[in-house]
Amino acid sequence: MKAHAAQYQVNRDRIVLAGGSAGGHLALLAAYTPHHPLLTPLDVEGDDLSVRAVVSCYGPTDLRSCYYHWDQTRVIGLPKVAIGLPGSRIPRKT
User: Fold this and answer.
1) Residues paired with 16 in a beta bridge
2) Which burial class, exposed, middle or buried, applies to 85 when counting CB atoms under 10 A from its CB (0-12, 13-18, 19+)?
3) Neighbour count for residue 88 (Cβ, 10 Å)
4) What is the pLDDT of the chain when averaged over all its residues?
5) Exposed / middle / buried, residue 31 (Cβ in 10 Å: 0-12, 13-18, 19+)
6) Mean pLDDT (whole number) for 75-85
7) How far is the C-alpha of 32 from the C-alpha of 35, rounded, in Å?
8) pLDDT over threshold 70, residue 94
9) Main-chain dihedrals φ then ψ at residue 46, nearest 5 degrees
10) DSSP letters of the chain?
11) Which of 11, 18, 52, 71 is the least buried, fewest Cβ under 10 Å from its Cβ?
12) Are 22 and 59 in contact (CB under 8 A)?
């Protein structure tokens, strides 16, 4: 967006990212990690990736805690030991 701001008639200093649910998660990720070495693609490395604001509607902020809190093993039908969740009462097969 910033690279083509003049073409789209956008003020490159007033870009806001917004999204809901997974889109909100991605908006937060992009807004809070603009220069993270593992999350910045090579084609935009060195560019100004900052944004003015971010709006996240119900975007999860901690996927790991959501996973453990909602016990996603029930949803996908796996026993807890299959993916190593703590608190499993199913003995491991050796």
Assistant:
1) 53
2) middle
3) 14
4) 79
5) buried
6) 52
7) 9
8) no
9) 90, -15
10) --TTHHHHT--TTS-EEEEETHHHHHHHHHHH-TT-TTTS-GGGTTS----SEEEEES--S-HHHHHHHHTTHHHHT--GGGTT-TT--SPPP-
11) 11
12) yes
69 residue type, one letter: H
pLDDT (0 to 100) of residue 48: 92
- Tell me the C-alpha distance between 51 and 33, whole Å: 11
Residues 6+ apart with CB under 8 A from 79: 73, 88, 90
Quickly count: other Cβ atoms within 10 Å of residue 56's Cβ: 20
pLDDT at 72: 55
Placement of tokens 């200093």 in the chain: 13
Question: Are 51 and 29 within 8 A, CB to CB?
Answer: no
**pLDDT at residue 82, rounded to an integer:** 46
Of 4, 56, 7, 9, nearest to 30 by C-alpha is 56
